[in-house]
Design goal:
Length: 802
């Protein structure tokens, strides 16, 4: 019996018809500057070349052909859209190709699906592409079977986020430990082991699906907002990271005191307590650079006072005197602020009168209940809200406050139907929720730069968006559990943020939330880890003291030595900050950033602190040894000097007072011992450590230096560099050269380098400096060679050790 083909023919025709609606054919295009404007019979769009190997795709109409009103971009730095970019277009019967340097995007004429290529090789392609259907915005891409994916920002899901679906909605997760799919600072961005990044430039509530629903599909979805995404193509993980950060904006160089120790807790309740705490640090010989005041500076209770934005004079009767007294000791004062203005606060009527709050649909201030009381929310998008909020920062800055802590900026409660005013247009909160902290940081940072043009702002915030680093944002990982489970994911959290530019992401050292009793081992291990993170800030609920001054020996003695080590490493750590400001390279780096082997991509047990140090935090109690996988090469125990051969798992012998840190053979690390404040740093006298090994033929290091304060050091090139290069000349023989360049006001013309050379098995026979014999000391027990070399600015020095 023959089967009729008519039903199948009809089905095919209908399928083709609906497919043509979904995949509108291209009917015309024009190239203007760096942007290709493409017209279809429904969905018009633009493709811009933003920078080297980077493309921005933005829809101009929705899937029905109606003009779509995009919100402004938050992810992109304006400087990244250069005028010097001049792409070319190639037109074939089936595709339009936009080319710039070694990157290409091919646009299929029939479906307008895009494929991205590097050096002629396909890297990533759209699956369903970018679309707007009603209020739903989607961006869909194909995933290869083998690729691994970073992305989503702060989540505890493992480094490879493939197979995960997560909300795109910044939200507090109090007391988290070893699992969390939604936290304080999400990022609508991914980075692939195939060396590309996708940034979904949309701040609305949505989801990120990395092959969870469909194994080979990467899918961003959002409820409104901006219909745009960014593709970054790289040559390696490091290259992709640096190109991504260049596009979204590099972090400004922070003040050098950021790298010191912070006294912080929830919270100091009086002026006298603050003075006493700093005094105790001084008396107990523990360095400290800043004191952070939580919410008690404006009210005696946790609830009922948020939004006062002025000192509680009963507890802080003379705040300016307190700030000045701390400043005389080179200790900075940092204050918390929140964007919630309680109806019971001293500023409620002022906020309403000045039109500073988010609104209901009828224009009245939107009020709601949350943990701290009945409240409104400052509209940081509106000019009126910004002007009103800023006046309080301005007054506090005049009193001498040096740093700013923005808390609850997800915002912690943010009704979807509340209305913000952005560029004089009403926008629902749901469409820009994830950009609130970003906009708040921009407000504080930009105004501080105008108010204090010779000062680098310090802006500590726990929530933001892609690119928030360009406003100096220093994020932390929120209210982590004070437990081993809370410590365990901190490397993953920091690395997932750092690769997208948020390089100063750090944790409340020691843990914040809960804890029935003080765990000395947990506290010690967490603070040891903190010595090798971007910010050293113990912080916790004050049922258990977060400051080491309140704990007995041996905990205090061990922590003291690690804090002193952090201060001694200030020249090296500040160099990492310089590298970040110049290139976007993270301070904490995933091993995949340095080593190309795919096995390192999802590794979170260890990380690189700069280029020289490998750190493997101890995240389990009662361990007598710590097993760690070392990359290829030769590594030295940072504390004992023991030599390890890499490309294998090694057992690190643990004591209470040591920590698994290795130095890569051939590394240079500058140090400055004996500091109690970062202000004590004297660049004219440095100790330069160098780890020699016959396996390393050559190595180098760039030392960066400026005055530690000027915000113009990078953009005006007012900094100095000293280049150190080592060249192996034979077995147990090396030549080290020193050359300098650049300058800044106040730079020392004469220096003295105390060299400590590690790695020699026996005392060398000779030491020559510029061809002349020089004295040295050999320590048989430590197997270290020490000698002193004077150095004059821009004078070359050659050191030969035989």
């Amino acid at each position: 019996m023959l089967r009729s083909t008519k039903p199948f023919l009809l089905l095919a025709l209908l399928s083709a018809f609906f497919s043509s609606l979904l995949h509108a054919e291209i009917v015309g295009y024009v190239l203007k500057g760096n942007t290709l404007h493409v017209n279809t019979d429904t969905s018009d769009f633009t493709v811009s070349v933003a920078a080297t190997n980077s493309f921005v795709v933005t829809l101009k109409t929705d899937d029905s052909g109606k003009a779509y009103a995009n919100l402004p971009s938050m992810a992109l730095a304006h400087s990244s859209m250069g005028e010097d970019i001049h792409p070319t277009v190639e037109d074939t019967p089936t595709t339009i190709s936009l080319n710039w340097q070694n990157a290409t995007v091919n646009i299929d004429k029939a479906s307008h699906r895009m494929t991205y290529l590097m050096n002629g090789k396909q890297v990533v392609k759209e699956q369903k592409g970018l679309s707007v259907q009603g209020e739903r915005i989607s961006a869909s891409f194909s995933l290869d079977d083998s690729e691994k994916i970073y992305g989503g920002g702060q989540r505890v899901l493992g480094m490879d986020r493939r197979g995960q679906q997560m909300p795109l909605y910044n939200k507090a997760h109090y007391g988290y430990t070893t699992s969390s799919s939604q936290m304080y600072f999400g990022l609508s961005a991914v980075m692939s082991s195939k060396h590309y990044a996708v940034l979904f430039d949309n701040t609305a509530s949505g989801t990120l699906d990395i092959g969870a629903s469909n194994t080979n599909e990467l899918l961003f979805q959002a409820d409104g907002g901006r219909a745009s995404y960014v593709i970054v193509l790289g040559e390696s993980v490091a290259d992709t990271v640096q190109k991504t950060v260049s596009l979204t904006g590099k972090q400004p160089l922070p003040p050098r005191w950021l790298l010191g120790n912070f006294a912080s807790r929830f919270g100091y309740k009086s002026q006298q307590e603050v003075i006493d705490v700093v005094g105790a640090f001084n008396q107990q010989d523990i360095p400290v650079d800043a004191v952070v005041l939580d919410l008690y500076w404006f009210g005696k209770d946790v609830k009922g006072h948020m939004g006062n934005l002025q000192w509680d004079n009963a507890a802080f009767p003379e705040p300016e005197q307190m700030i000045a007294q701390l400043k005389q000791q080179d200790v900075k004062t940092v204050l918390i602020t929140e964007p919630f203005i309680l109806t019971s606060s001293a500023q409620w009527e002022s906020a309403v009168l000045n039109d500073a709050l988010v609104k209901k649909a009828d224009g009245a201030p939107y009020t709601f209940d949350f943990y701290f009381g009945n409240t409104g929310l400052v509209d940081v998008f509106s000019e009126a809200g910004q002007d009103w909020f800023w006046q309080f920062y301005e007054k506090l800055a005049a009193q001498g406050v040096a740093g700013w802590w923005g808390d609850l900026g997800e915002p912690e409660v943010h009704p979807d139907d509340s209305i913000h005013l952005w560029d004089s247009k009403p926008v629902r909160a749901k469409a820009l929720h994830n950009g609130y902290g970003h906009q708040w940081a921009k407000l504080v940072y930009s105004n501080l730069r105008k108010l204090q043009p010779e000062t680098r702002p310090f802006v500590l915030m726990r929530s933001g968006f892609i690119g928030s680093q360009r406003y100096g944002m220093v994020p932390w990982t929120g209210d982590v559990s004070r437990s081993w489970g809370g410590l365990a994911p901190q490397v993953e959290l920091a690395l997932q943020m750092s690769i997208f530019g948020l390089a100063y992401t750090h944790s409340d050292l020691g843990g914040f939330a809960g804890g029935d009793a003080f765990d000395p081992e947990l506290y010690t291990r967490w603070l040891q880890f903190g010595a090798f993170t971007p910010v050293f800030r113990p912080h916790a609920q004050d049922s258990i003291a977060p400051e080491p001054i309140f704990h007995p020996d041996p905990v205090k003695s061990i922590v003291r030595e690690f804090i002193k080590l952090r201060y001694a490493m200030l020249p090296y750590n500040y160099g990492l900050a310089f590298e970040n400001a110049l290139s976007g390279s993270p301070l904490m780096r995933p091993l995949s950033y340095v080593y190309s082997d795919d096995k390192w991509f999802d590794h979170a047990d260890s990380y690189m602190w700069g280029d020289a140090l490998l750190v493997s935090p101890v995240t389990q109690p009662k361990q007598s040894q710590w097993d760690a996988l070392l990359p290829e090469g030769v590594w030295f125990d940072f504390f004992s000097g023991e030599r390890f051969v890499g490309d294998q798992e090694v057992a690190y012998p643990l004591r209470d007072d040591n920590f698994p840190v290795w130095v890569k053979a051939g590394s240079f690390i500058p140090m400055s011992e004996g500091l109690s404040r970062t202000e004590d740093y004297d660049p004219s006298r440095l100790t330069m450590h160098y780890w020699f090994d016959n396996s390393v033929a050559s190595s180098g290091y760039t030392f960066y230096e400026d005055n530690g304060k000027s915000p113009h050091s990078v953009d005006k090139n007012t900094f100095a560099t000293i280049e150190f290069k080592a060249l192996r000349k034979g077995n147990s023989s090396v030549m080290v050269s020193i050359n300098s360049d650049g300058s800044y006001i106040g730079m020392p013309q004469q220096r003295e380098f105390l060299w400590v050379v590690h790695g020699f098995e026996d005392a060398p026979k000779t030491l020559r400096v510029n061809g002349r014999n020089s004295n040295f000391n050999w320590n048989e027990n430590k197997q270290t060679l020490t000698f002193t070399v004077p150095y004059t600015y821009q004078q070359a020095v050659d050191i030969t050790i035989n």
